Every structure is written in structure tokens, then in C-alpha cells.
Amino acid sequence: MTRLLLAVSCLGMMSCTRPYDITVAPGVRGAVTETVYVTTQQTPAVTGALVYNDRVTQPQFARVDVAVPPHHAPGRVETPRDPLGGFTMASYQPQNRAEYIAALNAAPGEEILLFVHGYNTTTTEAVFRFAQMGHDFGLTDVKAVFSWASAASPGAYVYDRDSVLFARDDLTALLKDISHNSTKTVTLVAHSMGAQLIMEAMRQLAIAGEDHALNDIGTVILLSPDIDPDIFRRQVDTIGDRNAPYVILTSGTDRALRLSSYLIGGRSKVGQLDAADDVAGLNVVIVDLTDLSDGGHGDHMVAATSASAISMLRQIDDTRMLAQSGLLLE
Predict the structure, then answer these.
(1) What CA–CA distance (Å, rounded) separates 174 from 38?
(2) N or C terminus: fewer CB in 10 A for the chain?
């Protein structure tokens, strides 16, 4: 099948969201626990059920304790198929909205790190990935995940782009609730298509005059953002001036963004190095991780999956150190 026919077939596939499995199992001996607070629009799997709700309008909340195996290698999310054991949900505690916000505020740390996943991802996969990032980077503040209604299917790219739009109101409401009911600041970390979602949510906060909620958002980190540069410029303009720059982590070997660009007629995405001129003049810091790419996951999440990138980034505390490291794109 030609590349064009393959692209058309991917665009034409219809899908509904794949449920995520909640399987509570203790970790192997010596496992380390990472706690992740979850807001999800995805539906938990029910044994024997054949039909699942699509794009639910009432997000669900939970606290998940993730067991990270002692043989864990930086950048990996080991699975149960690993002979030495993999990541597991050691506990899953459902919460209502008020309990969830109160738990975020009461948890140790002065900051809430909120991760928004990319395309083709279930809630379980997003939780395990952020637990891995928390463990590998030694993150001690509150870790939370906002999981939107991805179809979790490689052929559902267009469906997932629509699901990002569907999720804007819920993420905006969550950021407002945190701001109004917590004393902590928020760091937003988004991967791929999730970057579009957090930029849209911040844009909605700005349009609604929710300056307090916007001011409570500190650093915004975009991992391989799947956003059109023209749209990104409009989003940044509407959001307005920010004290902290948008931090964009990118790789010149990102195969996933290359395919995404191809599907929309060859236009570059913000997460691609050749789009640097398209965002020139904006309050952004672009970090080039090309030389630290290892080929894993299509080099679409190098900052989280490359052991070399993790080792380097752990040593960097500010923009000055980024410049000294040689990773900062001038």
C-alpha cells in the first residue's frame, strides 16, 4: 500500500475510546512506590462488557500508587511480561472531585506537576509513564495526570484531535478548581497532542478572565508538541504575557511528528526543529535533544525515554545551565 493510501486509511478509520484496565496487584519485592493523582475522561474496563461509554462528560478521579520494580532501567516502563516484573497499580482509590482537590492540596510538596498525555494512550499507560518520569527525575512534588478520551488506537489520529477539543472544558475546570482551592502552584507537562490541550485550556482561562488560575501556572513544558505553529502563535497571543517561557523539548529525529506533519500536507509542527523560525520572537525556550535520541518510541518522547537525556536533564536547574549544556537552541 502506498504511503498516501495508508494515510487516507488512517484518517478514515472511525473509533471509540478503548477502555483502560484497572488491575490492582502488589509490586515485586523491593519495588518503589510513586503516587499519581488521576483525572480521567476514559472509562475503566468492566469484565465482560462489550460496549463502553465514549467521551464521558463527568471525569473520574482517583489516587493511584504505582509500584516501580527494583530492576527498572531509566526511560523504560517495564511490563508484566518482563521476567523480573513490571510496573503495577499497587492501589487504586477512587475519589470524588472535592476529595481529589483536597488530596492534591494536602500531599507533600509546594507544587503540582500535572501531566497531559499524547495521542494513542490509555489512562493506565499515562499513569505508568508519569510514574516512570517521576521516579527517573527524582520528582518530589505532587504528581497528577489529566487523561483525555484518546481512542488509544494508532489509526485514530483524527478522532484523538477531536477528543482534545472535547476535553478543553474539563481541563480548564480542573485548573480553576486547583487555583481556587489549593495553595500550590502548577507546572504543566504535556506530550505531543496533549500540548494542544493545555494551550487551549490556558487560552480559555484567559478569555474567561481567570487571571488567578493563569498566574498559578508556573512552568509549561511541551514534549514534542503536536501543534501547528500558526495556532500556537494565536494561543500564546491570547494567553498573554507570562513570566516563565514555554519550554519546548524536541528532536530532529522525531518520526511521529514527521508522520503527523505528512498527514496535514507537510506543514511543520512546533515540536519539530525546522519550526524554530516559526515561533521566533515568542517567549519560548527550545531544547534540542537530537544528539541524545536513542530511537525508542520513534524519538517522540526523548526527554522521558532516553536514559542519556534523563541523565543530562536531571543536572539542569535553569535556562543558564541549559545554555551551558549545549542543548539550548539559539
Answers:
(1) 11
(2) C
